[in-house]
Specification:
Elements lengths: L14 E3 L1 H7 L6 E5 L11 H14 L4 E6 L4 H13 L2 E6 L10 H7 L3 E4 L5 H17 L4 E3 L7 H17 L3 E8 L3 H10 L4 E5 L6 H9 L13 E3 L12 H14 L8 H13 L8 E6 L3 H5 L2 H9 L7
Parallel strand pairs: 2-10, 3-4, 3-6, 4-5, 7-8, 7-10, 8-9
Antiparallel strand pairs: 1-2
Helix pairs in contact: 1-9, 2-3, 2-6, 3-4, 6-7, 7-8, 9-10
The protein binds pyridoxal-5'-phosphate.
Pyridoxal-5'-phosphate (PLP) binds next to helix 3, strand 7 and helix 7.
């Protein structure tokens, strides 16, 4: 089952040098490159667009008229699913963890703007979210709609194909690249990069979204790769999770400030902030070394910064008063 992707994003995304950030990390200025997958276009951009091209392509081939997906309240994937639905004239129902709350900022505000309907699933685990999504699909079908369920984070073998293409772009854009650093959430992004570039070239920084992220990456990458891929053979760091997915850690606040103040680059508190904190730790312990080409994949997530009260409070603290 391999449908054709539906074009949604703007590709290839650019690769930019980051000499001041490189030096601040202890690398040579010419070592570090940023793959701007925050600039994929549609709906504010981010890594989920590449995966949606494949998962929504399959949904259209099945004749779907409504996209259903699951996620956290500040899910970038849910926001971009809503944007893809709007672009294609489809409906979207987002099944989100939690209850309608006081905060409607960040991704949630954009979900509303794109016209998505939200089904609040309560305080449930992933199995509970999947159950709620199955119920939503059943109700939609009973009402005469044709729903397609897009998996959590858009990840799976089909979604990972979108990141095989990103790996192919990088192969062209950064000759002799040694390490690609990327946040690891639901796994499809790292899986596609691993399939395109090989297990040794991709360093995933776990954000704490899954109990066994390496197993997910291996499962999605294996069918797309000629290499034998095992969870143990992957480069995965799990030292940046802190006390959980939604928490803002001290290394992440440092990473947000570092990227912003060396390169004018905005990272987010859940994914890209953790990925840069992980790269920093990897330079410290020698896993990433000066003199080697390193690519940091900026996977987007800016709306999540505005949807995270602690991260916004931290960012605001940084504004010193002139003359004060
Ligand atoms: C979802 C997401 C990731 C992680 O991608 P996965 O394919 O889920 O592992 C990284 N960065 C951002 C900003 C994301 O929204």
């Amino acid at each position: 089952m391999s449908h054709s992707p539906v074009p949604l994003g703007t590709f290839p995304t650019p690769v930019e040098p980051a000499p001041r950030l490189a030096a601040a990390l202890g690398l040579e200025p010419e070592d570090l490159w940023i793959k701007r997958d925050d600039l994929t276009g549609l709906g504010g951009g981010g890594n989920k667009i590449r995966k949606l091209e494949w998962t929504v392509g399959a949904a259209l081939a099945e004749g779907a008229d409504t996209l259903v997906t699951t996620g956290a309240p500040q899910s970038n994937h849910a926001r971009l699913t809503a944007a893809a639905a709007a672009r294609l004239g489809l409906s979207a129902v987002l099944v989100l963890r939690g209850a309608p709350g006081t905060s409607r900022s960040g991704n949630l505000a954009l979900d509303g703007l794109f016209g998505a309907r939200i089904a609040w699933a309560g305080d449930v685990d992933q199995a509970g979210l999947d159950g709620a999504a199955a119920e939503v699909c059943a109700r939609l079908r009973a009402g005469g709609a044709r729903p397609a369920l897009i998996p959590f984070g858009g990840s799976g073998v089909p979604g990972a194909r979108g990141y095989v293409r990103c790996g192919e772009e990088l192969d062209q854009q950064v000759p002799q690249l040694r390490t690609v650093v990327v946040a690891l959430g639901s796994g499809g992004t790292m899986a596609g990069l691993v399939a395109a570039l090989g297990t040794g070239s991709v360093l995933g920084v776990d954000v704490g979204a899954l109990a066994d992220p390496a197993a997910a990456v291996a499962e999605f990458a294996a069918p797309l790769s000629t290499e034998e891929i095992t969870p143990e053979g992957l480069r995965v760091r799990r030292d940046q999770v802190g006390s959980g997915y939604a928490t803002l850690t001290e290394p992440v606040t440092q990473a947000l400030r570092l990227a912003a103040r060396t390169e004018g680059l905005v990272l987010d508190p859940i994914y890209t902030g953790r990925a840069l904190a992980g790269l920093r730790a990897a330079v410290r312990d020698g896993d990433v070394r000066p003199g080697e080409k390193t690519v940091f994949v900026h996977t987007g997530g800016l709306p999540g910064l505005f949807g995270h009260p602690d991260a916004i409070a931290f960012a605001e603290e940084g504004a010193a008063v002139f003359g004060g």
